[in-house]
Design a protein that fits this description.
The complex is a heterodimer of chains A (94) and B (300).
Chain A: E1 2-9, E2 12-19, H1 32-35, E3 41-45, E4 51-55, H2 57-60, H3 63-66, H4 80-84, E5 90-92
Antiparallel strand pairs in A: 1-2, 2-5, 3-4
Chain B: E1 22-25, E2 37-43, E3 47-54, E4 57-65, H1 70-85, E5 94-98, E6 110-111, H2 114-126, E7 132-136, E8 141-146, E9 152-158, H3 166-176, H4 180-186, H5 202-214, H6 219-241, E10 247-250, H7 257-267, H8 281-299
Amino acid sequence: MIANYGYKDGSGEYYISIDTDKCIGCAAERACLTACPKHMFEIITDDYDDEVAWIKKPNCRTLSYDCADCKPSAGYSSLPCITACTPGAIKHSW
Amino acid sequence: MNAEVAAPTAPEKKEFWRWQENTWVDETKDWKTAKIITCGIDVGSVSSQAVLVVDGELYGFNSMRTGNNSPDSATNALQGVMDKCGMKLEDIHYVVGTGYGRVNVPFAHKAITEIACHARGANYMGGNGVRTILDMGGQDCKAIHCDEKGKVTNFLMNDKCAAGTGRGMEVISDLMQIPIAELGPRSFDIDSDVDAVSSVCVVFAKSEALGLLKAGYTKNKVIAAYCQAMAERVVSLLERIGVEEGFFITGGIAKNPGVVKRIEKLLGIKALETKVDSQIAGALGAALFGYTLMSKKAAG
């Protein structure tokens, strides 16, 4: 399942997509949990009883601010969450 | 001389936004002979529904306004449909809660997200050909892809902003002083097409609608401009995950042809139709999840 967390507002679209099929039996040992400086990722049991990552609810409405420190303008050449997720489950829309 | 002045009486405040609450049971079925009775309770931000499923088939439902207390809303919704058919809580084998208030349904055995429940409900209402679901809820909007069994394969939700939601339509209904059920048909009663209101925010769209009225637009033209804006807003959401054949709309806005027909025109695809109330999709899906769980348990 592709789960898109985030929002669209007057300033743009801010979504983090997680391919939860790649989360099941994570090959990166849940590295996303510690890679994100804001600790936005969390492991939950979804509606189909799979243990997958999601974005914590409060962060879903503030992604453009929460992720700003990791974007190229803040000196990062690649996003820590995407780099840590070696199965390639995480994508940013912006 | 009597100096007393009669206090002015407040004019009666009409609630134009108030949509039709609805209770229904299938009189052709007898729940007393059923093997498994399950219930889905969807406590949403604006409306609450209770759906009864008897041996895997829709039996009855109650759809009403959500109050300021989720447990009470859940209880009232369920009581409404149980009263209609003479059922008691102990007659129900399994209850699943969904929606924003899903963790506050006091008698629920399990809570499941509204995304999974809407997909399951749409699969029942529109058939196993449903692949793309647009849920236009009271205060959020969801675009969902599902497989032939109603299992979610892709979803996107916007609950940060009320644009493109039922609450936005209620605001316009009150502003125009036109009953909400009349907005859709009236949006087509115009002499020429209008551009959508430009704002994506309900508050600013309301200001813009007032400006259009002052500029000489008729009420119907303003409603048309708002319906068009709403359609454009949700279509942009849908386009983010893509639209596949087997398109189905759930939620209260599915009853507004002014928005639905404009969405269909923008997408170039016709939405599947159903005779079941579009507002109960989430609760129906929850009840069906409950039925599957109970069936597995019964089979050992």
